[in-house]
């Protein structure tokens, strides 16, 4: 497809315009150490020198807390008002792994019952990806046939090449976007930058510390639900929700009502975590995943097998956040390696 | 009125409440917009999400057969926050209903066969939708002999008493066996646990499908009896219960392995269950 | 440091072989250079997995409550800060004293692994660490690096109260000096200087990015409630909605719930995935308890009761 060039000097102006025309989500630095995707009012708030955000941009499409409807129930009449709060949105600066994660979320929210909250947002969102300029020690997107400069899923993919961004236009949506903001997207010089991007991609691909080979892992899990291995892994788990909340592909949620006790109320859905005991606890007291062991197993089975079985796409994109953030160093790449060994020794 | 969002319930009104046992009530519910019922199209064995506004939602099996009329019935045991509030509600009050969800009893496959229903406690509720379906005037001819074996802890714990003792026994080629766990003054029927009673009744597996629903311990012992009687795994159908929230296969909690009980279940044959990880 | 690791393994082996304990909870090599991971050793032959280096940040005392109802005794490796939690758990009757064997290790401070990882590729292997007093020399198979403690240590370690464990059945390592302890409330004092509006704005900004992953609660050694108020469904005090008001409620309720019991190990602060400075909340309470009741840090002596759990006639009443 088409390729363009953005001069870095023009980017602030473009971002300012986008913030006016769209709900613009972009990486924002807080307290010098944390990068989050937030809605911004202009270029000034955007942090472009980040490696990967601490929390993924999935919340731009699937907010952590989302009102699904409000109701007024007076006893005689019941009125339900759906929350139709969908804005035209641009996600700017999403890393390739996080964009891939959206492709992993899509089939969950599509299907026989289309989740129209997600679908409406997805449809009205332009995704501007941003190639990585650095591979972190926790990164392993290469295990999923992706890479630091992979544009899959992005409408536009920007690559930082010094004083310019090389822009790949990957979709029709991207094309119309570039047309609409034509003054910022030069055609000239794109060809030379294409080569520079190729080289950057090649250099970065050599920087992965983790060499993760998924071959055979799913087969081990297909064959074995009970593995003594899980007895080793779960003990150190604290049962917190970090791994699931920083994960760009985790999509579990809870639904409940909020009322102040009068005739009105609202229904919400909120991210939930399969690491929490009450996630599967039934009202009668039975819990099919009663201990940390079952919960830890379920999470890894979900990432490495169940999601693949259901949607034919992995439930992990190798962003490495769960590795970086787990307080007790539960490391999915180590688990993949161990499971491979289990398979080889079987 | 077409409802575009699967997470939005349809307003409905409670039109009748029957006290089944000390902690089970059956709610008859009618949609405020009759057109919704026309399109609802629930099949026996499916579930729905009931909204009690201010409390949230709970997944409840639809206990009425679509053949019985333009209403839905839900038998609800008072176990948690939402069901406690629901139990305090009165006729005329409004709840929300969305659905129907999940798969259904394979009633096409059952055609021409004898059916042996085995239920315990509140778990007769999902079976009742199929029982009434096959006993309906419209479909009765499609099925052979219908036997219903049902037990509960005591007489007071038996759900659907008018069905058990009046309506169903009057149906053609139908037999109802009822049992309670311990002897009780005034009870002249059978006393004993469900699995033992099944063994006594000794149903032949010949051209028969058994549909079993009950507490896990009852199912476990009953399955052992069925195996002894010569029923194959394909001849045994059951339904599973899991914590569900969205009921549309997205919220992630009701999975057993790669299957979601809310969309791939709740009805499974024993043969299918044996393919799943034992995590339910 | 490597000597201490060796001594640790020997002690663990002895305890397991002599059946004095059934389980040793210690630190093992992590999956990256500057990290360790909790390990659970049941078999004397497996003690080689135990290690000791300045990346042993976790407070392993947290795991003791997982074993409080299981038969057998448990040995746990603790630093000075962690050891306060042992005293606290015993005082709170969460674990029986006779069930625990405390392997104390004196601690020259822990390095912030992320800061170190930014300097050395975390893919290389750690060979040896030497403590030079004001710095650590970290030898790896990719070379030797020196890290000044003042720049690379965890903030909490710069003002450590107990570099030497306050309780230990087995004590390893040479005694460490207490440094800069008097400066430990510097950050809290700075916050106290702000106006009410400024304080409110500061905390609003922090709490608004909370993910409600509950890691701060789950890592906390004194969070031992069987059913946490935040998990309770009936009544639901705090819902799962992520918004400033409920996030604030969560953090403030938690801070007050551990008031007088928080041993100031700083783990909540260290592990927060969005860097909410939670220790400042706990330290504010700690400082006030010190000012009001002359209360030492909870757990720093075995006989301490919570200043909020007892009444004495000398208690100040100004706030009543």
Subunit organisation of the chains: heterotrimer
Stretches of chain B where pLDDT falls below 50 for ≥5 residues? none
What's the average pLDDT of chain A? 94
What's the level 1 CATH class of the largest domain in chain B?
Alpha Beta
Looking at this structure, what is the CATH superfamily of the largest domain in chain B?
Nucleotide-binding domain of ferredoxin-NADP reductase (FNR) module
Computed Rg of chain B: 18 Å
The coarse silhouette of chain B is globular
For the report, how would you describe the main beta sheet of chain A? 7 strands, mixed
Count the domains of chain A: 2
Query: Span between N and C termini of chain B?
Result: 37 Å
InterPro entries (chain C): 4Fe4S_Fe-S-bd, 4Fe4S_Fe_S_CS, FrhB_FdhB_C, Helical_ferredxn
Domain 4Fe-4S ferredoxin-type (chain C): 253-284
Region (Disordered) (chain C): 297-320
Keywords (chain C): Iron, Iron-sulfur, Metal-binding, Ubiquinone
Topology diagram in text:
The complex is a heterotrimer of chains A (346), B (280) and C (320).
Chain A: E1 3-7, H1 11-21, E2 23-30, E3 34-40, E4 65-73, E5 78-82, E6 89-94, H2 96-109, H3 116-123, E7 125-130, E8 156-161, E9 164-169, H4 172-180, H5 190-205, H6 217-223, H7 228-233, H8 242-246, E10 253-259, E11 264-271, H9 292-311, H10 321-325, H11 332-345
Parallel strand pairs in A: 2-6, 6-7, 7-8
Antiparallel strand pairs in A: 1-9, 2-3, 4-5, 4-11, 8-9, 10-11
Helix pairs in contact in A: 6-11
Chain B: E1 10-19, E2 24-31, H1 34-40, E3 47-52, E4 56-61, E5 72-77, H2 81-87, E6 94-101, E7 114-120, H3 124-135, E8 146-152, H4 161-167, E9 174-180, E10 190-191, H5 194-201, E11 208-213, H6 216-229, E12 236-239, E13 255-256, E14 259-260, H7 261-264, E15 267-269, H8 270-273
Parallel strand pairs in B: 7-8, 7-11, 8-9, 9-10, 11-12
Antiparallel strand pairs in B: 1-2, 1-6, 2-5, 3-4, 3-6, 12-15, 13-14
Chain C: H1 2-17, E1 23-29, E2 36-41, E3 74-78, H2 80-91, E4 100-105, H3 113-119, E5 126-131, E6 135-140, E7 143-148, H4 149-152, H5 155-158, E8 170-172, H6 186-192, H7 196-208, H8 215-218, H9 244-257, H10 267-271, H11 278-293
Parallel strand pairs in C: 1-3, 3-4, 4-8
Antiparallel strand pairs in C: 1-2, 5-6, 6-7
Helix pairs in contact in C: 7-9, 9-11
